[in-house]
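Morning run. Coffee first, then this:
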Amino acid sequence: MGARFLDHEARAAFKQAIEAIEDASSVEVVVAVRRRSAGYLHANLLVGAAVAFAALAVMLFSDHAFGLVAILFDPFIVGALAAAAVELLPGVKRLLTLPSVRRKHVAHAARATFVERGVHNTMDRSGMLVYISWLEQHIALVADSGIENAFTREAIEAAEREVNAAMPNGGVAVARALESYKARFGTVMPRRAEDLNELPDAIDEEPEARPS
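And here it is:
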C-alpha cells in the first residue's frame, strides 16, 4: 500500500473522523484497510501468456539460431517469470480487470469483513464499516440495519461515492469526507448518554497493508 495514503497524518485524520462521528451520533465506525480484495490471477495468466508468445516469436524469427531445447522451454520460463512479477505490480492487475469486476470483489470482501470483525454486534445495530481496498482503489461502506433504517439506501450510496471521489487525493481527504457526515449522523441517530464505545477505533489493517 502507498505509504502516503496511510501516513501519520492520514491515521490521525481517520482517528479524528471516527471520534467526531461517534461523539455526535450513536454510529460506531470501523475503518478496515486491505491490500487487495481478490487475487486476480487472470492478470498473471494474461501477462505470462503474452510474454511467452512474444519470446517464442522472437526466437523463431530471430536471425540468431536457437536450439530446439531452448525454443521448447525458454518462452515458458520467461512467461512464468513475467506472470510472477505481476504480483509486484498492482496497477497491472487493476488495468487488466474491469471496474465492475473490481467493485464486485470489493463489495463481497467488505461484507465478509463486516461479519468477521463483528461490526454487526452493536446493541442498536449501528455499526458501519469503511472498507478500503488498495489494489482496486475502491472504498465500500457497509452499514448495519440500524443505519439502513435511519437513512435511505440512496444516501448511503451517495456517501460511498463521495469517499471514493476523495481517494485519489489520499487518506486525509478520505477521512475528511467521512467526517463531513457527522452532522447528518448526529441528526438522524443522535448520541445518547448511555451509548458505549462498542467497537475498536483503531484502523483494522493487514500486516502487509501497512507502509514500511
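DSSP finds nine helices and four strands in the chain. Good start to the day.
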